Structures are given as C-alpha cells and as structure tokens.
Amino acid sequence: MVATRDIDDTRVVNASNVVFEPITRETLSAQIRDRLLERIAGGELEAGARVPSERALSDQFRVARTSVREAMQGLLSLGVIERRGNRWFVAERLPDLSIDRADDRKEFIRQLFETRRVLELPIVELAAARASDEERAEIKALSDRFHEGMPLEQFRELDRAFHSAIARACGNPLLVEVYGKVLARLFRSEAISSLLSDVANRAEVDLIVAQSAAIHATIAVAVADGDTEGAVAAGTKHLNSVEQGMIDRLV
At residue 45, what are phi and psi to the nearest 5 degrees? Predict the structure, then answer.
C-alpha cells in the first residue's frame, strides 16, 4: 500500500485570496511622450527651446526612431511642441499641462464618466419612457449612420448629435441644460482629443469606434421600443466599455 502524507490544512492557500496588480499596457511612444512632458512641465525644456533631435532621443531612450517620431506627433497634437523646418521646438505659448500626465488623465476620465453615468442613465431611461414618435425616429436615424471604420471626426460629431437627441427626448429642459455642459466638457477636452488623435493610438481608437457604433444601435432600439430597462442596460454597457477602453488602451 502506498503511504499517503497528511496535509497540513493551515498551509493550504485559498487561490481566491491571491491578488495580483493589474497589468498596464503603455506603448513606448506614450512613455517617451510623458518623459518629455515632465521635462517641459518642469521647466527644464523652456518655451521656445529646441527639443533634441529624433536621433538623439532615440539614442538616449534606446528605442527605434519610429517610437520617438510617434511621441513627437503626440506632443504636436497637444500643442506642446512645434516644427520649424526639420527641427522641433517647445511651443512659445504652452497649453495647460495639468492633466497631461498619465495618472492625471486617468483620474480626469474617471471623473468625466462618473458624471456621465449620473446624468446619462436617467436621461436615457426618461427618453425611452417619454420620447415622441418623431424623437424616437430621429434617434434611430442617427444610430443608423454609425458604422465601423468611420473617420474619427465624423464619429465624434455624430456621437454628440446622438446623445444630444436622446437628452432632448427626456422631457426635462433643466436636465438637458446640465447635461449639455458635460458634453461640452467632453468634446472640448484637449486631453481627450489628443489621446484620440494620437497616431500611436489609431488601432485602439478604431476598436472603440467600432464597439461604440454597435452599442449605439442597441440603445436606439431600446429607446424606440420604450424599453426603459434595456435602454439603461445598454447605456451602462456603453459608458463602462468606452471608459475602460480609454484607460486601458489609450492613457
């Protein structure tokens, strides 16, 4: 008979109690961009100063020049640097850099989407319950215009029109006014615009656009059918997906 060894129960580890830190995904170009932003925000690279060449930065960071070039394009979209001939310079008039660091951008996005949940979910529920036939038709028509692969600027313009139409259909002008300010903050945010337009994020942005196009159709159908629970569920899924996508893939 094969002898068995008694198991000391005190040494058995419950796998559900083992916690791992989340893995973050950040491109090389994003890391380079943030390093340069730190030097600019800290005053080491002053307004009007010449930025080291792509070759010099490539050697210092020990990365390919393509990663440096993508980082520079990201800084250019932020308005932090400008090109003069073949050289890069820190912009003479720097934009507000208060939310350019990754941690600050993540917190800003969390706050923005937390606010959107507080306002948008009751709005979409009210719209599903109160919208007129004409308003339901308008919302459905707008959702039909979304499609995978559409240009980013076209998507953002249509996205704003879609959410504004739902807000108007909720039947509460005061709520519409407050929500309009949140939409303005979202669509005028330099931090979000720069993230979405950064060439290094193109594949991730295309994925977010494709997913958003599909869920907009689900929201529109729920509103058109007067399905308040379905509208709230679809709206919740949409906000959670976009927020997580921006934090995980873009920031």
Answer: -110, 100
Here the tokens at position 188 are 């005028």
Mark whether 126 and 212 lie in a shared domain. yes
Locate 225 and state its tokens. 């059918």
Q: Answer yes or no: do 109 and 166 share one domain.
A: yes
Please check whether residues 135 and 219 belong to one and the same domain: yes
Polymer length in residues for the chain: 251
User: Which residues form the domain of 52?
Assistant: 28-90
State pLDDT tens for residues 157-182.
899 899 999 999 999 998 988 888 88
| Alpha carbons 197 and 32: distance in angstroms, whole number | 17
Q: How far apart are CA 84 and CA 22, in angstroms?
A: 41
CB burial class (10 A; 0-12, 13-18, 19+) of residue 41?
A: middle
Residues 224 and 130 both lie in one domain: yes
Are residue 168 and residue 117 in the same domain, yes or no? yes
Identify the pLDDT of residue 191. Answer: 66
**Residue at token pair 């959410």:** 163
Strand residue runs (E) in 27-105: 81-84, 87-90
